[in-house]
Amino acid sequence: MRRVVWLLFCREWRLAWRRPGDLLNPLVFFALVVSLFPLAVGPEPSMLRSMAPGVIWVAALLATLLSLDGLFRSDYDDGSLEQWVLSPHPLALMVLVKVLHHWLVSGLAMVLLAPLFGLMLALPLSSLPVLVLTLLLGTPVLSLLGAVGAALTVGLKSGGVLLALLILPLYIPVLILGTGAMDAALQGMPVTGYALWLGCLAMLALSLAPIAIAAGLRIGVSE
Length: 223
Hints:
Layout: H1 2-18, H2 20-41, H3 45-68, H4 73-77, H5 80-86, H6 91-120, H7 128-152, H8 160-186, H9 192-222
Helix pairs in contact: 1-6, 2-3, 2-6, 3-6, 3-7, 3-8, 6-7, 6-9, 7-8, 7-9, 8-9
């Protein structure tokens, strides 16, 4: 089973490098949204500082959502997904590897870029570790929950809008906790509670989302 996981992970990396646009689109979208925001509201540092948590988190959420529609689409089109479903190996573990790869090439990159954009939005240096921590805990939840919607809509030719309608309500708790932690950090208040709740959501999503994704893919392939 370890060999299967490793081969699948290597396959995902090779496919990703063959389609560099899939790697760059979410990151470019994330950078553009955050970069253009000061041009719209003005360069006042106090205003940018108060809005920065919401801007960064909403940009990360939308960038993740942008990359989800094609998460299983190519595998569905070329028949690979059907072979996954028929494989004797656990489908939940295989999709977990795919979602982990998705997070590594999109979510982790946004986490690494976030401090730069935080400084651009006038966030103090003391709040940047909190920003990185919350994104590090929250973006895997966004990818896992989004993969559930992508699995349910994989058989639809134009499932992007339906995917957004299914997933956006599930993203609200992560958005509230992430921005709440940043607001608390800016006010000098403890953020441990927010971080623990985000960690609980991450563990819950890691435990249950692969099972839901596998079930959704079986439904989508059978149709």
